[in-house]
Amino acid sequence: MGIRSVTVPAQSGRAVDAVEGDLLHIVDLDGHQVGDLWLIDAKDHTRWLSVGHTRDRGERLFPLVGQHFLDRFGDPIAELVADDSPGKHDMLFPPCDRSLYESEGLVDHPNCYDNFVSATASVGLRLPVVPDPVNVFQNSAPEADGTLIVGTAASEPGDSITFRLMRDVIVVLTACSVDYWPTNNMECTPLLMRIESA
Ligand SMILES: [Zn+2]
């Protein structure tokens, strides 16, 4: 049994490897901070967590505790085993990117897309696309009429969400870079990955 902790500084990303059976805890250290999470099969880099397949097969916008996240071929890659947060997480939005910030008049702004590319490059991994992530703590459940409004992350300091990894993976987590209201409550803060091996 061992525990590894990796801090993801504000407006940045980190990639770490983990193995089947590990528990991955993502902790919102200071509260109200969204994280973009990707899982990529360590043995077959063409298999990554697909939010589309997960929504489809789970028939939910986000899995319940005990349900699986699937890869893009429909096979389970992780299980949601605990949610010690208000339970607001998004699987509809892409990572924030240059064009989003440029539409707000912000040029050369840090963003989750570029941070994903940098984090994967740091471990020698290069994917043909940047998949849509699991946006942990992102508070943007659709309204009844289909409107999508992003609210401030409801997570408080120390809140966490826990995944059990169902195969060897590369975990990529970015601490989302949106520093204007409301997503991260106007302030970008770090996240913690805690990987607990059996
Ligand atoms: Zn972001």
Radius of gyration: 15 Å
Distinct ligands: zinc ion
What's the N-to-C terminus distance? Answer: 5 Å
- Strand content is 25-35%
**Average pLDDT across residues?**
97
Please outline what is shown here.
It is built from three helices and ten strands, in the order E-E-E-E-H-E-E-H-H-E-E-E-E.
Protein topology:
Blueprint lengths: L1 E7 L4 E6 L4 E6 L6 E7 L9 H8 L9 E3 L5 E9 L13 H5 L9 H11 L11 E3 L22 E7 L3 E7 L15 E7 L1
Antiparallel strand pairs: 1-10, 2-9, 3-8, 3-10, 4-7, 4-9, 5-6, 6-8
The structure holds zinc ion.
Zinc ion binds next to loops.
Description:
- The structure is a single chain.
- The chain is mainly β and 198 residues long.
- The protein has one domain.
- Helices cover 12% and strands 31% of the residues.
- It contains three helices and ten strands.
- It has a six-stranded antiparallel β-sheet with strand order 1-10-3-8-6-5, covered by helices on one side. A four-stranded antiparallel β-sheet has the order 2-9-4-7, with helices on one face.
- The protein starts with a strand and ends with a strand.
- The mean pLDDT is 97.
- The chain binds zinc ion (ZN).
- Zinc ion binds next to loops.
Notable traits:
198 residues, mainly beta, 4-stranded antiparallel sheet, 3 helices, binds zinc ion
